[in-house]
Amino acid sequence: MESFLNGLFYCTLFDCLEASASRTLIGRSLLEKMLLGEEIMNIVACEGVERKERHEKLETWIPRLELAGFGTAPVSSNGIWLAEKLLQSYVPGYHMHQKNQFLFICWEKIPLFSISAWKF
């Protein structure tokens, strides 16, 4: 089930690529094969010490960082505004979502990556 859910994440990444880069671009082809292809193969086919890629949600990292003595720090509102404008100018469909002090880069309604600031 975990491999299947990880696969859905990659479907979303490929949807992003489809919307933002032509299939004829050499850079896109290299990205798909060398980065995403290797990563997908590692997540789906490897277990234990052979597995190098491990995607963990923010909810997993929060207690780890807090246990290590870190606390959340606010991300500047100017930084959030600039990031939102940059995403909107790149390709329609990307946006930022803020929940508490955490930011999420989303494609359509699906969060792809989280952004957070921490202080010690």
UniProtKB/TrEMBL annotation:
<keyword id="KW-0805">Transcription regulation</keyword>
<feature type="region of interest" description="SAW">
    <location>
        <begin position="45"/>
        <end position="119"/>
    </location>
</feature>
<protein>
    <submittedName>
        <fullName>Uncharacterized protein</fullName>
    </submittedName>
</protein>
<dbReference type="InterPro" id="IPR005202">
    <property type="entry name" value="TF_GRAS"/>
</dbReference>
<dbReference type="GO" id="GO:0005634">
    <property type="term" value="C:nucleus"/>
</dbReference>
<comment type="similarity">
    <text>Belongs to the GRAS family.</text>
</comment>
<dbReference type="Pfam" id="PF03514">
    <property type="entry name" value="GRAS"/>
</dbReference>
<keyword id="KW-0804">Transcription</keyword>
<keyword id="KW-0539">Nucleus</keyword>
